[in-house]
Amino acid sequence: MRRARLVDARQMPVYDLGPEHPFAPFRQEPLADLLVREALVHQDEWLVPEPCSEDELQTVHDHAYVDLLVRLADPRDREAVRLGPVFGLGTEDNPIRPGQHRAAAAAAGGTVACVDAVVRGEADAAFNPTGGLHHAMPSAASGFCLYNDLALGVLAARRHGLRRVVYVDFDVHHGDGVERIFRDDPDVLTVSYHESPERRWPFTGRTSDRGRGAGTGSVLNVPLAPGTTDASWIDAVERTLVPALERFQPELILTQHGCDPHFLDPLADLSLTTSAMARAATLSRELAAQLCGGRWVATGGGGYQPIRVLPRAWTMVWCAVSGRAIPDQVDASWRAAWQARAGATPLAAKYADDPVDEPRAEAAAAANRTTVDEVLRLHGL
Ligand SMILES: [Zn+2]
Question: pTM of the full predicted structure?
Answer without folding.
Answer: 0.98
